[in-house]
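Why do we bother with holo predictions? Because pocket geometry can differ from the apo form. Keep that in mind while you read this record for ribulose-5-phosphate.
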Amino acid sequence: MNQDELKRAVAAAARDYVAEHLPGGAIIGVGTGSTANCFIDELASLRGRIGGAVASSEATRARLEGHGIRVLPLNDVAEMPIYVDGADEITPGLAMIKGGGGALTREKIVAAVARTFVCVCDESKLVERLGRFPLPVEVIPMASAHVTRQLARLGGQPRLREGFVTDNGNLILDVAGLDIPDPAELEGRINQIVGVVTNGLFARRGADLLLLAGAGGVRAVTP
Ligand code: 5RP
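The structure, written out:
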């Protein structure tokens, strides 16, 4: 199977998981990216059984609405049993780097409300140690030079993502070369830099379940 086929296979597995575990009429959180897009296409078949969805980006909102799925503002939702999203890297302990699509802040907010975070990936995303994928950091525009200097002091090589503005009107610095022995510690440290909105380490609140697609099919991994 090529990577697109793996994404479609894991998206179908996530749909089956949702069909089995999401209570009828409940709200589901939906992530951003190409794997999440495959999941949205699958979710369309459950449209009549879910109460609606919360989107982690404008792109996801548009795709959900294109399938006739009702999209609710997060502030109107008190209970979200399941959030489904992809990742750029994920460890066997289910800590992740996310934000390749630049939606990390809204993804982290929606995930914080969800009871169960289901990550959907193909095997290329599974790593023993995070950090080969440059870490996305969302920054307030007027702070980008300051944050760049602070991230360099942590040993990284930050690069401004050219021509990209987040759904929140901010910038993304992609930080290569970081040594990440303790993802939860670094997640907190970077978030303490003034001007950082959030960073793409999802370790303090990692995934609860990984559906991982490989040549042998889709398997479930728990931390
Ligand atoms: C977007 C994300 C995505 O989940 C991540 O980039 C993976 O995307 P894809 O499924 O296209 O590989 O964090 O901000």
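The chain has a mean pLDDT of 98.
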